[in-house]
């Protein structure tokens, strides 16, 4: 019993926080921020599985996010598809694309892999911008509400409940994946791909699978974001959004599922509250991020955990 509690303490705390948070948030603005944190955290968890645990850099994950968002927008607006079916179609299309490109791309390493994924993201962003007949081009496209069997998901409180449940399931799935033999294979590849191969791990297959999984997670989050906001623009698939997602992974903590939550929360909340600096918010944000990486080089959660353990020792 003690082993079970210690192993799942983080999940228990997360469940309690997600349940109590809407009770203490003062108004709909803060609920909206919490929803955006949840959506970003879902994407970042998938990206951290790829980067933090497997050691594969991706600078194009916003492209997968954009595919999901625009799949839901286009299929529901132009073809009158039910929104759950559009979401599933976007996730399936993203998975197929990720599988096709993963095999050649993941043969690369280091900066060449980063450049390849960056190129993929740029291509997706350009296609979305140029296919104005369906995507609306630079002007964007309106998205209908998420409806399941005629019931529409509207209002911040309902959206918060849906995103909170999905976020908890994502964290639970990621934690269990890391604790499984497949998760240990990911970490073995990160440590030394050659040693992992010698140990009998099919490194290419493992990397392709985790790349596809992280891409599908990003696509689903993109679809949910599109339905929640009600509007999509090409910027959500752009380079700067990809950099923002990678920064969330690094600041929160590489190879830390709960670090992904911290990174997503920090980089979603800070721009909201730094707007009071009127034109200097980007500079202030940069200074804060520099301070975090200087004084907490492992990222927020791993550095704090290490400091706490050192203090107890």
UniProtKB/TrEMBL annotation:
Domain of life: Bacteria
Keyword match Transmembrane helix: yes
Main location: membrane
Pfam families in the record: BPD_transp_2
UniProt KW Calcium keyword: no
Its membrane topology: Multi-pass membrane protein
InterPro entries: ABC_transp_permease, LivM-like
Annotated compartments: Cell membrane
Transmembrane stretches, start-end: 36-55, 62-79, 85-106, 113-130, 159-178, 210-233, 245-270, 282-301
CDD domains: TM_PBP1_LivM_like (cd06581)
Protein name: Branched-chain amino acid ABC transporter permease
């Amino acid at each position: 019993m003690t082993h079970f509690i210690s192993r799942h303490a983080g999940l228990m705390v997360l469940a309690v926080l997600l349940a109590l948070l809407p009770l203490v948030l003062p108004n709909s603005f803060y609920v909206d921020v919490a929803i955006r944190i949840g959506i970003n955290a879902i994407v970042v968890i998938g990206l951290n599985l790829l980067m933090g645990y497997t050691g594969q850099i991706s600078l194009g994950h916003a492209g997968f996010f954009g595919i999901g968002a625009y799949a839901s927008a286009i299929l529901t607006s132009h073809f009158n598809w039910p929104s759950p079916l559009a979401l599933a179609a976007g996730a399936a299309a993203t998975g197929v694309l990720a599988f096709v490109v993963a095999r050649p791309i993941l043969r690369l390493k280091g900066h060449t892999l980063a450049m390849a994924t960056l190129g993929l993201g740029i291509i997706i962003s350009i296609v979305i911008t140029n296919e104005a007949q369906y995507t609306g081009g630079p002007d964007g496209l309106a998205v209908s509400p998420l409806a399941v069997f005629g019931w529409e998901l509207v209002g911040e409180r309902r959206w918060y409940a849906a995103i909170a449940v999905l976020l908890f399931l994502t964290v639970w799935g990621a934690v269990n994946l890391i604790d499984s033999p497949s998760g240990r294979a990911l970490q073995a590849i990160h440590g030394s791909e050659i040693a992992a191969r010698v140990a009998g791990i099919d490194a290419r297959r493992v990397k392709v699978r985790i790349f596809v999984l992280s891409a599908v997670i990003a696509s689903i989050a993109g679809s949910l974001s599109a339905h929640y906001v009600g509007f999509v623009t090409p910027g959500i698939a752009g380079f700067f959004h990809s950099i923002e997602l990678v920064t969330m992974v690094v600041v929160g903590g590489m190879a830390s599922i709960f670090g992904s939550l911290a990174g997503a929360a920090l980089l979603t909340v800070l721009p909201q509250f730094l707007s009071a600096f009127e034109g200097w918010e980007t500079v202030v944000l940069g200074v804060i991020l520099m301070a975090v990486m200087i004084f907490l080089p492992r990222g927020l959660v791993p550095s704090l955990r290490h400091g706490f353990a050192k203090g107890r020792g």
